Amino acid sequence: SDVGSQKDRVVTEEEWLRKWEMGNTGFHKERGHPLLQKYLDLLLNGRSGLRIFFPLCGKAVEMKWLADMGHSVVGVEVSEQALKEFFAEHSLPYCEEPVPEIPGAKKLQSTSGNISLYCCSIYDLSSSIVGKFDGFWDRGALVAVNPCDRQRYVSLMITLMEKNSSYLLVTVSYDPNKHKGPPFYVPESEIKSLYG
């Protein structure tokens, strides 16, 4: 599959942090994503009280929406600013604690306990730290991961899945020769080979 000139493109952690600092976050949606609303039943599959994972969560409003429905939400994001903005914009009190297994990492947890957001590289997480999940909402993560890291990313997601996990994935379709990304173009054939 032709992914144009994107396969070697790398966006550094510093560049992502700068995007948040500069407010260059066109990828953030102020309102819940219509596709999550449309496919929510597929994600929940008649179940309640799920553990739902938001990889590269930013300050996604859907985290509060799902927590308000009685689910437990866990997210990971490299930008502490994004996480603090999430709690501030929803007027949610939270506490902060270090994550002993990950040097320099923090966990910001709502005082109600149903939203836990990890501030660190996603690659520092493991199921021994965050547990496993019944549902995944991957709206801007796979398409933001550097193409050279996709296999590593998906392998991690698979280790975080419970047996009956539901994984909702949103990608974007365009000519990768005309846009350098992110969001990166991930052809359907590659999604099938990555997730199996």
UniProtKB/TrEMBL annotation:
Which is a Gene Ontology cellular component entry for this protein? Answer: cytoplasm
Q: Which residues are S-adenosyl-L-methionine-binding?
A: 16-27, 56, 77, 121-122, 139
Q: What is a biological process (GO) this protein takes part in?
A: methylation
Q: Which reaction does it catalyse?
A: S-adenosyl-L-methionine + a thiopurine = S-adenosyl-L-homocysteine + a thiopurine S-methylether
Designated name of the protein: thiopurine S-methyltransferase
E.C. code: 2.1.1.67
Q: Which organism is it from?
A: Eurystomus gularis
Where is the protein situated, by its record's location annotation?
Cytoplasm
Judged by the first EC level, this protein's enzyme class is transferase
Q: Write the record's keywords in alphabetical order, separated by commas.
A: Cytoplasm, Methyltransferase, S-adenosyl-L-methionine, Transferase
InterPro entries from the xrefs?
Answer: SAM-dependent_MTases_sf, Thiopurine_S-MeTrfase, TPMT
Give the family per the record.
Belongs to the class I-like SAM-binding methyltransferase superfamily. TPMT family.
Signal sequence range: none
| GO MF | thiopurine S-methyltransferase activity
